[in-house]
Amino acid sequence: MPRLARFASAAAALLMLLAASAEDPPLRGYTAESSKIQREWETKFRAVPDTARLRASLRNLASRPNHLGSAHQKENAEFLRDQFRAWGWQAEIEEFHVLFPTPKERVLEMVAPTRFVARLDEPVLKEDPTSSQKKEQLPTYNSYSGDGDVTAPLVYVNYGTPADYEELDRRGISVRGAIVIARYGGSWRGIKPKVAYEHGAVGCLIYSDPRDDGYAQGEVYPAGPWRPKDGVQRGSVMDMPVYPGDPLTPNVGATKDAQRLDMKDAVTIMKIPVMPISYADAQPLLAAMTGPVAPAAWRGGLPITYRIGPGPARVHLKLVFDWKITPLYNVIARMPGSTWPDEWVVRGNHMDGWVNGAQDPLSGLTPMLEEARAMGELAKQGWKPKRTIVYASWDGEEHGLIGSTEWAELHADELQAKAVMYVNTDGNGRGYLNVGGSHYLENLINSVARDVEDPETKQSVWKRMQAAVIRNGNETTRAEARGGRADLRIDALGSGSDYTPFIQHLGIPTLNLGFGGEGGGGIYHSIYDSFAWYTRFSDTSFEYGRALAQVAGMTVMRTASADVLPFQFDHLAETARGYAADLKALRTTEAARIAETNRQLDEGVFAATTDPQNPILPPKREALAPQLEFSAVDNAVDSLTRAARRYEQAQATAMALNFASVALGQLNALLRMSDQELLLQEGLPKRPWFKHSLYAPGLYTGYGVKTMPGPREAMDQHDWKSANLELARVAGALDKEAALIHKAAALLERKIVP
Questions:
Q1: I want to staple 403 with a disulfide (CB 3.0 to 4.6 A). Which of 123, 137, 245, 394 is the partner?
Q2: Which CATH superfamily does the domain covering 570-748 fall into?
Q3: Average pLDDT of the residues in 2-14
Q4: What is the CATH number of domain 99-321?
Q5: What is the mean pLDDT of residues 727-750?
Q6: 16-52: b or e for each residue (b if 16 or more CB lie within 10 Å)?
Q7: Out of 21-30, 91-100, 133-142, 743-752, least confident range
Q8: 42-98+326-448+501-560 carries CATH number 3.40.50.450
Q9: Residues of the chain with pLDDT > 70: what percent?
Q10: CA-angle at 461, arms to 36 and 336, nearest 5°
């Protein structure tokens, strides 16, 4: 079709769509008739989720500790399977066998200049009944810490990020042979021992400072929501930015008979002992330290002078673990599709907590159960999704995304052949909707958010999101939210939840959802993450649990029954262009910084100071940053933009014509490949398990995302040669994506695709 004729056809189609219904236009990917039917079912669906049921489910599931390997976790898995079956789903438990360490011995004591023995325990509170379940609770520890028995001087390293070690280097302070103490925050916890080990430390302590997570934020539990002095944040320190899941079975589902690595070859297990402690246990250690006064930004909220050390505080740290293979239980439920049963919409939330896990994860799991119950009710009334819907309750998330990763690895080929989307949640609170994911899904989640009522404002969830962006965003996003852009932007995904294997390893289109932003939270991964805490300080009415069920469930339903998968690629092209601009700005900023530092070194501006309270060494000379080859990425983004525009025109025309003569099966099979085309076959440098060219957790941020991670991390490391190679690989992935979108547009235009 000539370009002018195509434009005229698209314009006519748009006029037909507008004329059809000014108030209730057809949903994207639907005909006018199928859209009307879908909206009727969604209205019925929204009425089903019930706050009383949410409360009862949370009370039941959080009644006892439900960590990986616990008796209650297996009981919960069997209960969930039976619930799904009662609601009309086909449900089974898929069992895996994974390496799971639990502590046999934990010792932390200061041996000089005075003796202090750490408590390493969280006290029972009369206001919190489940805090007394000591026999079933996991103790305070970091899973996948190394075994060790070390005595060494203590060095305070702030948040323990690479930037903090650069500051120590500037001050001439080494952690080699020392035990470091870092506060939670600034990066994911597993980065702290990883960087400490790389700098020669022999042990790592991680504590929650009250400035970040305690009385400086507000009243502490039980009077308020924040972390009390003896509260401890447990957590995994597995090196998940290399690969998540069972450390012994990378790329392979950890079935009972799976081939396993020797433990010595499992690179994601930490090499030094790591222990989390409370700020009550941290204070005597920090107070005993001397040496330079910590920089202002390093000072926390304890009533002490924060010093860096090393010494005179010397600490004895001993950790011995029971490294055993433990059964893991995923609950997988299916509702077969009526038209395309071999296309799957997958929905998941984990069900394991560190202790009782009311907030994390059960506040997200219970809405998911209400979604499944509601869909079961609709099915009894005659509703049939066109695509198969798969609901998954994951085990082992807290220790390294284990249940979801093992399932995704075991079913990798089938998922890449069938899955059209994965929708994830992981806990829920009170406030506004937070969304991250594949950027061509922006329009889908914006449209769903416009159709769900916010419990507090009684406006739409979308209006509440818009207000949050206007209040908290930067100048650009505020202007967009005020009307400069039809859809609110969604975040890029790093890691930290069960979406990771789907989007970053398999290339499945993904969304991650959850409400939050209001209310305090200081019970994360402690025994106080309980029904008592949640019902006093979080979503006390369970109205936001109901809203999450409505948003996530409608997202699943709307995708499952769309005639054409509701993807909008101009958002992806726009986002990719922004990522490329970020890389250019990073190179310019780094080049200017290096040049200016070298100039000042030449002019003798820097001089070392000898003040023992504030010793500063001059910076080192660096090689100048060369120009980088951005032309291939720029050309690929331009190609992607043209393809997205063509697709939008073709989609509007075909939608107005009720997708007449469009080969829907062939078209949807192409569209489900949208993220797979963005995968890098060899994976990212140093971590081939991660394959996505646009999104990955940073090697040294952990949960935090690195966009266009290959070139970005090479630039972070000033590896300019590798940066150019990685830019070329990103350009190749974007070119493949553009080619796929052109093929999809051609199908909508009813052209023959070779």
A1: 394
A2: Transferrin receptor-like, dimerisation domain (1.20.930.40)
A3: 42
A4: 3.50.30.30
A5: 97
A6: ebeeeeeeeebbbbbbbebbeebbebbeebbebbbbe
A7: 21-30
A8: no
A9: 95
A10: 50
